[in-house]
Design goal:
Layout: E1 2-3, E2 12-14, H1 18-23, H2 29-37, H3 39-43, H4 52-65, H5 70-73, E3 74-76, H6 85-97, E4 102-104, H7 106-121, H8 123-129, E5 133-142, E6 145-155, E7 159-166, H9 176-182, H10 185-196, E8 201-207, E9 214-218, H11 221-241
Helix pairs in contact: 2-11, 4-7, 10-11
Length: about 280
């Protein structure tokens, strides 16, 4: 059952606004990433500001997953000459009418529109979107810690899918698989499988540069197990932080001197001998 009001001690599935979800207790996948990096990153998480790339991702998510909410959450600001009286008047009225909304430029809106259209036209992506719940939150106790997540796409009892914007959605080690590794998306897959009681997790990746190509992916069991390991590490660090005297623990990186090793493909190797000489 999907609830619409968050309980005092949340447990289960909820269709709630982002503001309610973000204010609610619970260790999220993104917070797991921060606390694994350092306690300082985790403790300063509220100072985080979205980048232009993230704002573009928000637009694409709304267009694909919740198009009925787009006008309530986003406003497109036309370019005007602020040196003129008409331009200043437009800006004043626009700001008053759209207070609290995400304000974007026309070119950003156009880019997001192209990206969303390509997602919806992609055969496998559109198949993953069919007959699913969108933007549903889940809260669950795991190892005595409340964890939470909000799924882009959820087919109850079957799978969770996540819509990602990216610079490269191609297959191969230099494509989207590089993002999966660098941004630890495999941890997200493990966390969401746990939260939503499914054993399949898919990615829909759409490029943020022309021609805005789309691709779909799943990751293997070894990746999921690696994600579970990161999840356990994050939960342990979170538990260790509870009630700790922050003045007595290292909040940043460790104080060791670290070696940066040359990549194997760049390292100089002895030339092979020529036995025929």
């Amino acid at each position: 059952m999907i609830k619409t009001v968050l309980d005092d001690s949340p447990d289960g599935f909820y269709n709630i606004p982002d503001s309610v979800y973000f204010d609610a207790d619970g260790l999220s996948n993104s917070s797991m990433g921060l606390i694994t990096k350092s306690y300082a990153h985790f403790l300063n998480r509220d100072s985080f500001k979205p980048t232009p790339a993230m704002q573009l991702g928000t637009l694409v998510h709304l267009m694909v997953l919740e198009p009925h909410l787009f006008d309530d959450k986003v406003a497109v600001a036309e370019k005007v000459d602020m040196r003129t009286k008409a331009g200043k008047e437009y800006k004043k009225q626009f700001d008053e009418l759209n207070r609290g909304k995400l304000i974007v430029a026309p070119e950003t809106h156009a880019t997001a529109t192209r990206m969303a259209e390509n997602v919806l036209k992609h055969p496998r992506a559109s198949e993953l979107l069919e007959f699913t719940e969108r933007e549903i939150a889940s809260f669950k106790q795991h190892d005595e810690i409340l964890i939470k997540g909000k799924a882009d796409i959820w087919a109850p009892g079957q799978y969770v899918a996540d819509l990602k914007t990216t610079t490269d959605a191609s297959e191969g080690t230099t494509g989207f698989s590089k993002s999966i590794l660098n941004f630890q998306y495999y941890r997200q897959a493990a966390v969401y499988q746990e939260l939503f009681d499914v054993d399949k997790f898919y990615f829909i990746a759409v490029e943020n540069k022309e021609p805005y190509l789309v691709n779909t992916f799943f990751i293997d069991e070894d990746y999921i197990n690696a994600g579970k390991k990161l999840m356990r590490k994050a939960i342990k660090r979170f538990k260790d932080l509870q009630g700790a005297d922050l003045s007595k623990i290292n909040l940043g990186y460790d104080d060791k001197l670290h070696s940066i090793n040359c990549p194997y493909w760049l390292a100089e190797r002895p030339e092979a001998s020529n036995d025929s000489e």
